[in-house]
Amino acid sequence: MSDQSIDPASASSQAMESATAANPISLGGGDGEAPYHPLAMDVEQSGAWGGVDRISRGFGEWLNPILVKEARQSLKSRQFIITFFLLLVASCSWTILGVVVNAPDVYYLPTGDSLIVGYYFVLAIPMIGMVPLAAHRSLAAEIDDDTFEMLVITKLTSLGIVLGKMTSAILQMLIYFAAIVPCLAFTYLLRGIDLPTIVMMIIVVFFTALLVTSACLMLATLAPSRAGQTLALLAALGLIVFAEFLCGAFNMEVILRQGLGSDSEGLLFTSIFVVIGASCIAVFLKAAAARIAPVTENRSTGLRYLMLLQQLLWCGSMALIILWYEDLEVLNFSNMVIAGYWLLMGSIMLAESPELSPRVQRGLPSTVAGRVLRTWFNPGPGTGFVYAITTGSTGVAVMALVGTLVPYDRAPRTDSITFAMIVIGYLAGYLGIVRLISMPLCRRFGRMLTLPVGTLATVLMLALVSPTVLMVATTGAPARSYTPIEAVNWGWTLIESFERRFSPALALLILTVGAFIAIVNLALLFREFDYRRVAVPKRVLEDAAAQTQPAGD
After folding, report:
1. Which of 201-215, 240-254, 327-341 is modeled with the greatest confidence?
2. Do residues 166 and 214 make contact, with C-beta atoms less than 8 angstroms apart?
């Protein structure tokens, strides 16, 4: 009896071997063939479903591995499960509450506009609040836990790592959208709100969430230390609160109350918001990738091209609005934004190292025309300074020329050319002062991002208060009206030029002083112009050829 007993484990093994012999394709495939999943629609890959299986398998291999990892972790995390459950509960509760409160008018009168207000907040809180915060903490944890060093030694690029975090956040947003879209369709059926308004609200919320998420990813890379990460987290929370308030005010006041989503103006502003928002998202993601890239990489040229593209999109959008409404105030506001943007970007570029690694020097332009046109895109504080002033001044000048096409029927206002002179003078002057102050500080304390940015904030603040302090010290009282000594005060000068005609002579003086400060800085830039293109070493060429060569050769 004992000789005839059969072990259950061996019986199971024999059954598996018999099944494999009877049908090898269904479990493992033949010799040299890739194994197929038992649930495949066409295991022999001979029909249409086999093509679908091949495409889906190839798409899964093509996907960013960071996306796969983050999707698995985030969709199984307690934060996502709780947030998604609360979103479903809140949407169902608001639906029931809205129908009960509006009964019996809900059967006869349009009530969709009142219900969509609640659905907006149900959607905006996880989209603009929870998803960006989770993305920020995910990228910050890679740096805090030293797992980021393991990622950078793989074939993944720094931009691929950041894009993996971003696409994982987009996946969560789409899941939240899938849960709330039926409720938005329900508000359309209740009447009181049209379909273009609903679509415009969805676009605004979605792109705001993308914009905040990309900004939070960039903030996560700014400070590698624990204390710096705490400050970055606080900055991310402040950005989220500000975005929630601004997006809610725009949707409730402009889109719903003023009905901007159902006319041509709504389409214009939505298109501009999408275009400018997409450019900001690209800049934020590229900046985050540059912060985590190795120091031997060229982390500046791609960003500078993106900033130039962003200015072109901004100037084109603002020119369209100016010619649409024929309003010089939009033009002056646009020039102020351009000058402030390049003041900040120029100060950030001052924190770059003037030393270029051999890998970066291999990509420098080799021709005379290339060095003339592309040197300003090379990394370095000096090239960044010239790039910021020339690009910003060109943008302001172009917008001033657009302003000459607007019918000038507002005599008390300052004309576009005079205002452009003021803005360019402030851009060149204040950025030059920041560079002269931050250069010795960076040599003493290192190339830290906080040094030039903090210097910029200090210089702008002192420029606001120094004329008043001087007037009080000399006359015993602050100035009651605008005088030429207040030209240093950029805030009062810009307000004065907005409210009444500004003196062209004083504007020319501001431009001249700013140009003089910029010329003084140019005398200290020639070291960065000495870099020339170096040849690629033979060993690097051989390694690159070996990597591209097929494995069978």
Report:
1. 201-215
2. yes
CA angle 92, 98, 99 (to 5 degrees): 95
Read off the DSSP letter of residue 414.
P
> What H or E segment, with its residue span, contains residue 481?
none
Closest CA to 438 of 427, 428, 429, 449: 449
Q: Which residue has the higher pLDDT, 335 or 531?
A: 335
Q: Which helix (H) or strand (E) holds 83?
A: helix 78-102
Quote the CA–CA distance of 378 and 531 in Å, as a whole number. 10
What pLDDT does residue 359 have? 72
CB count within 10 Å of CB 437 equals 17
Contact 348, 299 (CB under 8 A): no
**104 upstream amide cis, omega within 30 of 0:** yes
Q: What distance in Å separates the CA atoms of residue 283 and residue 208, rounded to the nearest whole number?
A: 15
Q: Do the Cβ atoms of 253 and 259 come closer than 8 Å?
A: no
121-165 pLDDT, tens digit per residue, is 888 899 999 999 988 888 888 777 666 666 656 667 788 888 888
List the one residue out of 330, 353, 332, 334 whose CA is nearest residue 342.
334
Contact 346, 388 (CB under 8 A): yes
Residue 441 one-letter amino acid: L
Counting every residue written for the chain, the total comes to 553
Tell me how far apart the alpha carbons of residues 489 and 426 are, in angstroms, rounded to a whole number.
10
CA 511 vs CA 396, 424, 497, 522: distances in Å: 13, 6, 15, 16
Residue with tokens 């895109």: 377
CA distance 195 to 42: 42
Token readout for 243 is: 């975005």
- Residue with the bigger pLDDT between 307 and 483: it is 307
For 230, 383, 552, the CA distances from 287, given in Å and listed in that order, are 20, 18, 40
Contacts of 229 (CB under 8 A, 6+ apart): 140, 143, 144, 220, 223
Output DSSP code: residue 157: -
Q: Average per-residue pLDDT in the chain? A: 79
